[in-house]
Specification:
- By secondary structure, this protein is α/β, with parallel strands linked by helices.
- The chain is about 40% helix and about 20% strand.
- The chain is globular and about 65 Å long.
- The structure holds NADP nicotinamide-adenine-dinucleotide phosphate (NAP).
- The site of NADP nicotinamide-adenine-dinucleotide phosphate (NAP) has 27 residues, from helix 8 and helix 9.
- The site of NADP nicotinamide-adenine-dinucleotide phosphate has 27 residues, from helix 8 and helix 9.
């Protein structure tokens, strides 16, 4: 079979409707959304363009399924997740190709996303049977205090385009483990991976109505009625801080449980005692995963002034050697940005850097021709430049300098975001001191990739609320009930 034929067969197997109560069907209005390959601008498939009525139908199904789903045994829920894990792993190449085709990242990175995404299924299959409560005597000895856990209930999940599989499994897996039903709304830019995953979960034995999926081109208008519906008990959102604020405000009407995984502006600190090979590799990893379109992407490289020259030279050499092209082509290391707006933003940020005294060391331009490509770019710019307060979300690495540890920590913390941060140093006591003072939910030490299904992922400040993954991840989908028992 030719590669083209295999691709056509794979696309033909992706469901393109809305999934409601276990049935794939067209959107009520019959409208469709074209899903484009960002490397070519070509439409790959059309999917259902659901509206508010489809969303409400999805919540009807989720609400109807909640009680029976909550009553299933943890082991049964665990086994569904475990079968889904095995199946995602078996179809890893299909998922990787689909991610690269609709989102643009190189195949090797997509394969990494599939492994990471699948781990949430395995991890939460192991967490499901461990949901527990507690027993203690009251301090006065007059009562027994019991706690027990119950699923939060029907949950609306809104996911972004940058990790089409992992952002879905990071929410769906703990919700399944906890016994919550769901309405999933993937991004209209990359819905295909989520649709294939939802289909796979049905085949793994997830009962009808537990996971409902609605794709839409009118995210705000379509989801708003759900946020005001008393049957919905939780909103979990991954996306920009701007949209997170709108959703938090709308969620206040029903005082919904919320989990918010929002934007980031990660500092990456390189001290004078750092192993520069490790620091440059770490910076490449932290900056270039997903062409910089990751909430954990290094946004501000802060380097001690004594090693800044050498670090900049080595990072520029590494960045300028990266192979840019369509993610599905062999040997490509940097794919396209998601759309034309992202390229415009990268150009605007390079101009802003120059206006603030920055100097482009390599890259700095959009790549002419089809697709939304931008050159891997390294800049020297003042560490206090205003443009780095914005989430870059592209392949631009701005390097600023510092002289003292206190200055480095103050610069790192001077952001309204608090998601990921990175420290490169061989001095353990310095590392521990800096780690304690960084106002971020996550710190990578001498490494540029920190995501792991077994770790609590999340941010502080305007980067969000709650944690995904780790032992903490399932708690986001559980309520604690306290029972006071007379002795
Ligand atoms: P986005 O524009 O905020 O969109 C995220 C999701 O929200 C998409 O499904 C989008 O739908 C939907 N949406 C947009 N406006 C909405 C509204 N008014 N009401 C309800 N839903 C709405 O973010 P993005 O551009 O997709 O993703 C990039 C952002 O996500 C970055 O800021 C990045 O840092 C953040 N992110 C954070 C994490 C984390 O774990 N903290 C992980 C990944 C990404 P459509 O796409 O269909 O419009």
């Amino acid at each position: 079979m030719t590669a083209e034929r295999a691709a056509d067969d794979l696309l033909a197997g992706v469901p393109t409707g809305v999934l409601i109560d276990g049935v794939w069907r067209d959107a009520r209005g019959g409208a469709r959304i074209g899903v484009e390959d960002p490397s070519t601008g070509k439409v790959l498939l059309e999917v259902a363009d659901g509206d508010a009525a489809d969303m409400v139908a999805a919540l009807d199904a989720a609400a109807a399924a909640q009680a029976s789903w909550a009553a299933t045994s943890p082991r049964d829920r665990a086994e569904i997740l475990r079968r889904a894990f095995d199946e995602v792993v078996r179809r890893a190449d299909d998922f990787a190709w689909l991610i690269s085709t609709e989102m643009g990242k190189p195949l090797a990175e997509s394969a990494g996303e599939v492994r990471y995404a699948a781990e949430f299924l395995r991890w939460f299959s192991e967490e499901a049977p461990r949901i527990s409560g507690s027993w203690r005597r009251s301090p006065e000895g007059t009562s027994r205090l019991l706690t027990m856990k119950a699923p939060v209930g029907p949950t609306l999940m809104i996911t972004p385009w940058n990790f089409p599989l992992a952002m879905a499994t990071r929410k769906v897996a703990p919700a399944v483990a906890a016994g919550c039903t769901m309405v999933l709304k993937p991004s209209e830019l990359t819905p295909l991976t989520s649709l294939l995953f939802a289909d796979l979960l049905q085949q793994a034995g997830l009962p009808a109505g537990v996971l409902n999926v609605v794709t839409t081109s009118r995210a705000g208008e379509a989801t708003l009625p759900l946020l005001g519906d008393p049957r919905l008990r939780k909103l979990t959102f991954t996306g920009s801080t701007a949209v997170g604020r709108i959703l938090l405000s709308a969620a206040s009407e029903q005082v919904l449980r919320t989990s918010m995984e929002l934007g980031g502006n990660a500092p990456l600190l390189v001290f004078d005692d750092a192993d520069l090979d490790v620091a440059v590799q770490g910076a490449l990893d932290a900056k270039m995963r997903n062409v910089g379109q990751a909430c954990t992407a290094a946004n501000r490289l802060l380097v001690h002034e004594s090693v800044a020259e050498e670090f900049s030279r080595r990072l520029s050499a590494a960045m300028s050697g990266l192979v840019v092209g369509p993610g599905v082509e062999p040997g490509v290391q940097v794919g396209p940005l998601i759309d034309a707006r992202a390229v415009d933003k990268a150009e605007r940020l390079v101009d802003a850097a120059r206006a603030e005294g920055g100097e482009v060391l390599t890259g700095g331009h959009a790549v002419p021709g089809d697709g939304h490509f931008f050159e891997p770019t390294v800049l020297r710019a003042p560490a206090t430049a205003a443009f780095v307060q914005e989430e870059i979300f592209g392949p631009i690495a701005p390097i600023g300098t510092f002289a003292e540890t206190d200055e480095a920590v103050a610069l790192a913390n001077s952001s309204s975001y608090g998601l990921a941060s990175y420290v490169f140093s061989r001095d353990l006591s310095r590392v521990l001191d800096v780690v304690e003072r960084l106002e971020f939910g996550m710190v990578g030490v001498n490494q540029g990739v920190i995501s792991n299904a077994a770790a609590p992922f999340g941010g502080i400040k305007q980067s969000g609320l709650g944690r995904e993954g780790g032992a903490e991840g399932i708690e986001e989908y559980l309520e604690t009930k306290y029972v006071g028992l007379a002795p």
